[in-house]
Amino acid sequence: MSRLYRASKQLMTTPLPPSDPPDSETNSALDNEEEATIACVLVFNSSDPSGAAGISADVLAIASVGAHALPVLTGAYARDTAQIFDFFPLDEEAVGDQARAVLEDVPPQVIKVGFVGSPENISIIAELTADYDGVPVVAYMPNLSWWDDDKIDQYLDAFRELLLPQTSVLVGHHSTLRRWLLPDWSSEKNPGPRDIAKAAAELGVPYTLVTGLTANDQNIDNVLATPETVVGHEKFERIEAVFSGAGETLSAALAALLATGLDLSAAASEALHYLDRCLDEGFRPGMGKVIPDRLFWALPDAEDDDAEAEGPDMNGDFFEMSINETKH
Question: What is the Cα–Cα distance from 234 to 171, expressed in whole angstroms?
C-alpha cells in the first residue's frame, strides 16, 4: 500500500476513548505528536456550488493525501457542472481578515493559491505571502475563458506582477499557460514545457508543472520543468471524458504532499498519480462535466458491493413493529 493510501485511510480511523481520562502529561504528548504529523496548507480559493472545483475541491484533495486545509474564501461562482455563469468576489478586507485570523493561530507549511476573483484580492494575498517568505507557494492558473476579456486581462496582469514573483511552483494546463505567458509565440511548433518554464522563470517562478501535453493519441503527458531541464514527467492514458476540477485537484494534492515533507519531484509524481486515479473514478452528478472522485480510495471493495446487493429481506414485515414490543 502506498504512502498516499496510508495517509488517506488514517483520516478515516476514529480511536475509541480511553477508559481513564488522560493526565496532562499524556495530553501534552498527544498534542506534540499531532503537531509533528499533521501538515497544514493555507488555501485561497472560491466557492463552487457544483463541488467540481473551487475551495471544496481543495479541501477534499488536501485531506485525501494526508494534510489539513486552512481554507480562505475569496468569492463565489454561480455555476453548475456544465458552465460558469457569473462570479462574485469578496472584497480584499474580508479575504485578508480571514487569512490573518487563522495565521495568528496555525502556521502553514505551504500556501496554495487558486482563483481569487479580483486584482485586489491578488494584492492582499501577495502581501500575506510576502510576510511568510520561507513558506512555499503553489499557484494554479485555471482557464478563464468564461470571464469578460477586460477582467481576464486585469486579473492576469495583477497575478503576473504581484504573485508570480513569490510563487514556488506554477501549475496549469499547457494551453492556458501558453496563452498567458507566451502570447507572442510565433513559431509553428508549439512551445514545450521548458519554453513555458522559461517564461515563468523570467517572472520569478523557479518551477512550472505543465499539464495536458498530447504525447500521442492514447496518452497525455505532464511535465515538471525549469528553463534548464525537465525535472520529471508522468504519462497517463487519455480518458475519454470532459472533466471539471482536475487542475484544482492536482495543485491541491501537490501543495499537501509538499507540506507533508516530500521533495518536489516526488510530490509532483505522487500528485499526478493521485489525479489519474481521481479521474479514472470520476462521476457525473448532473448533466454537465465529469467530476474527479477525490475520495476514490474510500469506495467499497467488490466484496462489500456484493454484500450490499444482497441486503436485508425487505418483505412486508420488515417495517412492522408489534405494539406490545414498543418501549417508551
Answer: 14
